[in-house]
From TrEMBL, chains A, B:
Pfam families: Epimerase. It comes from Pelagovum pacificum. InterPro entries: DenD (IPR050005), Epimerase_deHydtase (IPR001509), NAD(P)-bd_dom_sf (IPR036291). One of its GO terms (molecular function) is oxidoreductase activity. This is SDR family oxidoreductase. Keywords: Carbohydrate metabolism, NADP. SUPFAM superfamilies: NAD(P)-binding Rossmann-fold domains.
Length: 327, 327
């Protein structure tokens, strides 16, 4: 089985590639070829089968046709411009997040019409397809009414994925990932960055800034669980989905206060004392429009499983990123 | 004020053009120029101000740029490939219903960036953005999960309209029209055709075929009320809408049995006796996936008004199409 990961150089893409290289299978079927693609060459993990790393431009029709011409059995599409950049650069966001995905689906349709090709297509969508006002929790039948161009682009791709799948052109599934926490690496300027940094920095003895109130609630999954979701989506027997192919993933709802309590339980008061409260009205305003939590009934009934607890989300980071050490 | 109607040669487009020519105003502001555009030259009604009829191709970027270059203050966009054709011809449906609308929005964005141009843009969406399973009535916050390519294209355009409006590039409003009844003219092959023909043909002494059970329920507006909706949308003070710019219109929910009872009340037993029951499983299957009714709270609170009753829907046809005579 040939598996292709698009956007393989990103954080989730790298972890997914490592997982696929290590397990060598999806749904009990052996992977015999792995193609990792991104705008910059992704790292190729060690594996018992050929791993090819390639660069490609999702906005270049010829590149996209060439990628699909490799006829992967499973395509996991993570490539995207992130939310902040899609908001700042209207044209780039639409070109990559909407038109790039449409080029992929159109290239698949062309191969389908030639020989019946119909790959599994796992699309990384986002909870940004939802916009305030919304209930907490947000149910599976709640309107997708995004408040950003990024969320709009993801919501449109969900609609396309449903229609192409309904017509039998592709075997699509879209999963709306919770906010990934703890995101490894350096602090970044994303408005959501503090959800990770207030944990990540104290775990290595550094100060972190908290720009919002302790009562702010949000929806989380660890990177390990996000990879679980993608692999489970690649393995799912999609006849269970019916025409609605896109699912909100289960997650852990936690307030900032609950995040900090979990940090105290796992890493002690020394860690929590490193969080410095510096209210930032701009960030607080942005975050106020974000979903707090979901009732992910459909995904749960299809076997998608959230992290066990927020404490576990922190322990996963300590295990996977810090060699088990706090300090 | 310069008003432009795109898709002006269609049934609703013609009635809307006549209305605008007759009243000469929208929201108390005088119309001083009316441009009627379609793929074939629309009829130009008599008016007290210049009415220009033009042909254009919604799929031709140069044509679209030229249309928007006329800088209408209000654009009413009715141009579309109908549901059946969009399902039969994948490429044409996406080219016209999605890419054509996007060309319009992009041409507006280009003018906006040049000089701040920001027209009112009234988009005719459809209840086809909803797909089974759904509750009856369908509320304003229910997921748009279309089961046709036409519904997908309309749902995508709604998302684009919201995003372009949120960014201040256009002053958009989308309205989801109920099924128009009684549609004037000859019987057509649309699966929904019988909802009109079982009334229209008996009103002129001709037989009509009913392919579904009397219990089938659906959601209706008269052509006159559909025009009211479009004019009201063109006049609306859109700051009331917030970021969700697309609305399900109010309508009359009626079962086929209730349609026939109304026909009996308005036109007598002679009319109802002309309906011949010929069950057609294919049509029954298609119609089973269609919405039955809506709770159009937002639209009602914004002043959109449904027909008074199904009897009235029949009377409007008799007045507007049959010179008041039943035969």
């Amino acid at each position: 089985m040939h598996v292709m990961v698009l956007g393989a150089a990103g954080m989730i893409g790298r972890k997914l590639s490592q997982r696929l290289a290590a397990t060598g299978e999806i749904d009990g079927k052996n992977i015999d070829r792995l193609t990792l693609a991104d705008t910059v060459a992704p790292e190729g993990p060690e594996a018992a089968f050929p791993v090819e790393t390639v660069t490609f431009d999702l906005c270049d029709p010829a590149d996209v046709v060439a990628m699909i011409g490799r006829k992967p059995d499973i395509i996991i599409h993570l490539a995207a411009i992130v939310s902040g950049e899609a908001e700042a650069d209207f044209e780039k966001g639409y070109a990559v997040n909407l038109d790039g995905t449409r080029l992929l689906l159109e290239a698949i349709r062309a191969e389908h019409e030639r020989d019946g090709y119909r790959p599994r297509f796992v699309f990384a969508s986002s909870i940004a397809v939802f916009g305030a006002p919304f209930p907490t929790p947000i149910g599976d039948e709640f309107v997708r009414a995004p408040l950003t161009s990024y969320g709009t682009q993801k919501a449109i791709c969900e609609l396309l994925l449903n229609d192409y799948s309904r017509r039998g052109l592709v075997d699509g599934i879209g999963i709306r990932l919770p906010t990934i926490c703890i995101r490894p690496g350096l602090p970044n300027k994303a408005a959501s960055g503090f959800f990770s940094s207030i944990l990540r920095e104290p775990l290595v003895g550094q100060e972190a800034v908290l720009p919002v109130a302790d009562t702010v609630r949000h929806w989380f999954a660890s990177p390990r669980t996000a990879v679980d979701f993608l692999v489970h989506a690649a393995a799912l027997h999609t006849e269970q989905l019916g025409p609605r192919r896109c699912l909100s993933m289960p997650g852990i709802m936690a307030s900032v206060g609950e995040q900090i309590e979990a940090l105290g339980r796992v890493a002690g008061d020394k860690a929590t004392s490193l969080i410095r409260r510096e209210p930032d009205e701009t960030i607080a305003g942005i975050v106020a429009g974000w979903p707090e939590g979901f009732e992910a009934k459909r995904a749960e009934s299809l076997g998608f499983r959230a992290d066990a607890s927020f404490d576990d989300i922190i322990r996963i980071h300590i295990t996977d990123e810090l060699d088990g050490k706090v300090g």
